[in-house]
Amino acid sequence: MQRRGALFSMPGGSGSRKMAAGDIGELLVPHMPTIRVPRSGDRVYKNECAFSYDSPNSEGGLYVCMNTFLAFGREHVERHFRKTGQSVYMHLKRHMREKVRGASGGALPKRRNSKIFLDLDTDDDLNSDDYEYEDEAKLVIFPDHYEIALPNIEELPALVTIACDAVLSSKSPYRKQDSDTWESELPVSKYANDLTQLDNGVRIPPSGWKCARCDLRENLWLNLTDGSVLCGKWFFDSSGGNGHALEHYRDMGYPLAVKLGTITPDGADVYSFQEEEPVLDPHLAKHLAHFGIDMLHMHGTENGLRDNDMKLRVSEWEVIQESGTKLKPMYGPGYTGLKNLGNSCYLSSVMQAIFSIPEFQRAYVGNLPRIFDYSPLDPTQDFNTQMTKLGHGLLSGQYSKPPVKSELIEQVMKEEYKPQQNGISPRMFKAFVSKSHPEFSSNRQQDAQEFFLHLVNLVERNRIGSENPSDVFRFLVEERIQCCQTRKVRYTERVDYLMQLPVAMEAATNKDELIAYELTRREAEANRRPLPELVHAKIPFSACLQAFSEPENVDDFWSSALQAKSAGVKTSRFASFPEYLVVQIKKFTFGLDWVPKKFDVSIDMPDLLDINHLRARGLQPGEEELPDISPPIVIPEDSKDRLMNQLIDPSDIDESSVMQLAEMGFPLEACRKAVYFTGNMGAEVAFNWIIVHMEEPDFAEPLTMPGYGGAASAGASVFGATALDNQPPEEIIAIITSMGFQRNQAVQALKATNNNLERALDWIFSHPEFEEDSDFVIELENNANANIISEAKPEGPRVKDGSGMYELFAFISHMGTSTMSGHYVCHIKKEGRWVIYNDHKVCASERPPKDLGYMYFYRRIPS
């Protein structure tokens, strides 16, 4: 690739219309204000259209706007011109032609191809013996499509020359820079090399953590010296906490802690209290192993499998991918593959299944003209546009065309016939949907089930008007909890999107075979002989369904009848049946050494599924309900003091913190409110308050305290007293939002509970669907009658109830030892036959391995 300035050092482009320099300059003068030179923060898209999968390799090439640096295929560039009025585009095209032959008939000796200057993410083989490539760039001025060939350094104005050079020299916005990742910018802690670790016998389990001081279960940090598990500050990483990890450091002086939940084979989030910043610990694996966490052996090879695991699972990979069978490639609409971007098969498998569902096809592809026409100015950052683009790419058949007959004959004669479509690259889609997500934005393998739920959440948040295609997965679960001591019960409902089916290992029908296999495997390992072929436990589906319906113990159950903790059991039933039922087999778990493990099972999943017997029945005759009393919120003394200290007299505001924030450019009154509502806890805490509240209309208005009567009366309101009116005081809202909840949730919860903090928190946890009812929130915010507001009820969750009879139409399978490694493929039943989607390869399936799947998709059979 040619570097900056190199392109324009070449002689004038051949084939361009010759004009005097003044004529070209005069042509560009009206458009000069719209031509920009890319800055360091600009994303320059020159590989892929914002609305389609056209690229410089496509027949029509690609048009890059010289103002926004967005790229458009020939079919979509006119839309951008009409919407924005931007007239100047750089047209990029890569031509492929057969190589010139030498006198003997062979290709000429290879030499560096100076005609290739585009830095493209492409699968084309630039070293092909039969073809050569040539890149072409030119400016196109709309609406007359006037073309100026590049390079044209002598005739173009200097600004245009610099802008064109910068665009052509820019790197892909998706390309990960090897040495410039944020991880490499973290300093190595000065305490890492000589860190003291106490030999106190502490072993950290792979789940079930809670703060040793306050029982919080989120934002937990493991101290690497003594193994204490304690909560972080409320504002760190946008998670709640009481700062006990920091207090422990101040008491004991142990400097390093690692955040639980971030540990992967590639590293973890480490914080140095002494150095007051995130750091790198080059000996993290050893430090974690001290507490029983085997980080390095979570996976051991490039694809996540240790050598022994690979040998064991060869048969599993062959069966699931249907290797060894000559599969017929499928082409046309609905048979387009997705290229693997490096451990992106989890995304590809889920999206293939999603866009096989008519409701998603109609919502996005069916509304393509409207969605594209009304897309924002930057369509690459719009969820609905990118969903529509992906859906059209998969369903149109435009990127899934079989080789033409002449090409087939030529390939067969050369004995090089390898029928395989190119598919599309979901790079732009993945970059957007994984944005700000620490796992999906990485190149590591992920859990397809977690991505499915992440996608559903994005669909919910970006619904198109009243249409929400994810409603087809939505159902209500009735949970019945019984106090074992009083036998009283409580019925609650929650929303869910998939059915998690436990693996009933004790019901295996081939136990003798499993025992023999395990003995042979251990003997082979001890004698360093080849391992035997993996044997799957054969589990009846009926046993898994029975395990799902059986009661389970409830940890930390608080009985309102006893007003104390007691033993409790929970059973779950379907309060409604969804249009499409997604079933996840719970194959994955963690060993005590934190190494992910997978249950190697074969389950006889039915093609026809009847779960009508799992329909919820509600309160039964003779059952007595538990009293409707919320458990007391236990707040440690130091946290109580902190909350009470938040309610300070306005005259006691820490002005030094106010000035620190004001110097950052925030309005002075907003800074005063931030410091007040965070209880004089410092500029850093107040800054987080500002970030949360800066979009509010009264953000910069002076601090006012409705009904303020001193710290004592305000404190009474916080801990349960009823306010004179039902308008929640700002100080209570600030306390709830500081725990990580949205402001609208806090306002509605307080209004529904007469401004009682404890009951408001319980209300939030018991109304998980509230966040989705945004219209209801707006209505509440605008309603002036407090009595009406307190009595109002949010509309019920949207469900599409019906029969519990289903038929299987798709399933996703996983190969490997854990969700952090291995490979996913998807099988979908289309037009009466099963089709396998294995990244970019789409073929007719001969032996779909329905017994080895991980996620199963069922559609309701109309009754």
Automatic annotation (TrEMBL):
Catalytic activity line of the entry: Thiol-dependent hydrolysis of ester, thioester, amide, peptide and isopeptide bonds formed by the C-terminal Gly of ubiquitin (a 76-residue protein attached to proteins as an intracellular targeting signal)
Keyword Transmembrane applies: no
Binding sites annotated in the UniProt record for Zn(2+): 211, 214, 231, 244
Pfam families found in the cross-reference section: UBA (PF00627), UCH (PF00443), zf-UBP (PF02148), zf-UBP_var (PF17807)
GO molecular function (one): BAT3 complex binding
Superkingdom of source: Eukaryota
Record's protein name: Ubiquitin carboxyl-terminal hydrolase
Protein source organism: Dipodomys ordii (Ord's kangaroo rat)
Name of the gene encoding the protein in the UniProt record: Usp13
